[in-house]
Specification:
Helices cover about 65% and strands about 0% of the residues. It is built from 14 helices and 2 strands. Helix 2 packs antiparallel against helix 3, helix 7 runs antiparallel to helix 8 and helix 9 packs parallel to helix 12. The N and C termini lie far apart (about 90 Å).
């Protein structure tokens, strides 16, 4: 029978070995994660000459999701889905160059997977590389031709946790936006008119209607612009695109300017409306200035306002 002293020594040795292994695992994981944390950089220079830098990363849900996606990818480096989410999570942190790099790796490894072109094109828009975005989305259009559409899972789910968009719809939607930002309204109209952009939920109808109305007005197609907003009514089941819904109701005349909730989308819509409806450039300029001084420089409304400002006032 072993002595009590010998048993205690064995226990202490086992505990020391367990502590050492645990320490090495924790140390290795911490060091690994620190090495793989994206570095802050200049993400882009806006059309107005402003320098946009990636934000300082803070601990929280978004960073935890990024680290989880990163670990999943390194455990499954031959998995396209894992790489897509790694890139998407990097973008949600505000690290768009890092996301573009990851999606580029995906394109190199999976050249026939339209999802990588769709997501890289989106982040080319974020970084004001509109020609590159158009090139990616046009490539994606070719890759999805004759293929069954698929629901695109949300990285930032809405309150009902219902994904509202599809791969095909997002490709055409973002292609239309890229052309809009280049002021190529004929090409933007063709993209936003694709049925997959607005075929499923009321949210899709108002988001596409918001852009289509402005496109038709810029093309001086008044009747077509009226037909677009006539598809919108106050009783629609809107889950997340409340801002687009109210702008469409405003265009339709069912909501007055004084009744609008003023957010970035409203500011952009009102600025446009004063340009093509009222021909009041001074009032439009005030709305553009408010948007560009208070808005998120990566929101589509801000980016579109920036593009318009450079075209109209510089």
């Amino acid at each position: 029978m072993p002595s009590l002293v010998g048993s205690e020594m064995c226990i202490r040795d086992s505990m020391r070995r367990l502590f050492l292994v645990t320490f090495l695992i924790i140390f290795s994981c911490d060091s690994y994660n620190n090495l793989k944390t994206p570095k802050q950089t200049i993400e882009t220079i806006t059309l107005l000459g402003d320098t946009l830098r990636s934000p300082e990363i803070e601990n929280g849900k978004s960073f935890d999701q990024f680290k989880s996606a990163q670990i999943t990818y390194f455990d499954n480096e031959n998995n396209a889905e894992a790489l897509i989410w790694y890139g998407r999570r990097a973008a949600y942190l505000g690290y768009y160059k890092e996301a573009i790099k990851l999606f580029s790796i995906g394109i190199e490894n999976y050249p026939n997977d339209a999802r990588f072109y769709r997501h890289r094109g989106h982040r080319y828009i974020s970084t004001r590389q509109y020609d590159n975005a158009i090139s990616d989305f046009e490539k994606a259009v070719k890759l999805i031709d004759q293929k069954t559409d698929q629901v695109e899972p949300d990285g930032l789910p809405n309150t009902k946790n219902i994904p509202l968009s599809t791969l095909h719809g997002n490709i055409w939607y973002h292609l239309g936006l890229a052309y809009y930002l280049k002021n190529d309204m004929d090409s933007a109209l063709k993209a936003f008119s694709n049925r997959s952009v607005a075929h499923k939920y009321d949210d899709n109808i108002v988001s596409s209607g918001h852009w289509l109305y402005m496109i038709y007005r810029r093309l001086n197609k008044i009747e077509e612009s009226i037909n677009v907003v006539n598809e919108v009514d106050k009783d629609m089941d809107i889950i997340e695109n409340m801002s687009y819904h109210q702008t469409c109701l405003f265009y339709k005349g069912e909501l007055q300017e004084s009744e609008m909730i003023i957010d970035e989308v409203a500011l952009y819509s009102l600025a446009n409306w004063y340009v093509y409806e009222k021909k009041d450039i001074l009032k439009a300029k005030q709305y553009y200035q408010q948007l560009l001084s208070t808005g998120n420089p990566y929101s589509f409304a801000y980016i579109a306002g920036e593009s318009d400002w450079a075209r109209l006032f510089e």
